[in-house]
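pasting input
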Amino acid sequence: MATAPPLPDQHLEEMSAEELLRWAHSEYGEKLSLTCSWQKQSSVLVHMVSELGLDIPIVELDTHLFFRETYDTRDRLVERYGLSLLPPPPVITVAEQHRREGPNLWERDPDRCCHIRKVEPLLEALKPYDAWISGIRRDQSPSRATTPKVQWSERYGVWKIHPLVDWDEQKVWLYIHVNEIPFNPLHEGGYRSIGCMPCTRPVNPDEEERAGRWAGSDKLECGIHGDTPIIDAKERHA
Ligand code: SF4
């Protein structure tokens, strides 16, 4: 099992999103990557990285079950910012999954489906890297409420960098609109959080942002962020 390397003594929690991205880039260089699933946080991070002039490889976590609007959003961001995405990590086709696991695995065992289509591909994709930028936010759900800005992931053997973790949804939208950044149009139809088609529904304004993910089940996370928070930067320097 990988062990956490030492972090430099930095006031990471006090850094702005831009400062944290600059710090991560100077610290990890070409060993730093950014994952995108083309929700609103991806729009913010792609724009911010571009504005800062940072060359950070982008990993697209495509489950082959995204909405058409999600792929269209990816294409608009690629065109606007001249992105060159890394080759997507290998994942079996949906048809092959039906053959191996039976039809509609997401209805019977969503944890296994997410493991096959998200966790395993991400494990492969992150192999060359020491640090991984993700767009999760503390106010998205109680399961993310205590997420630090920098966190060691035992599962992936990388530092997880969360530049937007202390942003709220309003701040995300303000940033997108002020900067006129392309965003996933499903957000305007009540899809405040967007994943795969079979497991995502719109939410009511009084529901949690991620209530439309695996609605009707007790599943809260797809597994890629379900890694137990083993240690965060603050604890490491306590
Ligand atoms: S979100 Fe649903 S369809 Fe997508 S990988 Fe997870 S269980 Fe499968």
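fyi The chain has one domain: 12-236.
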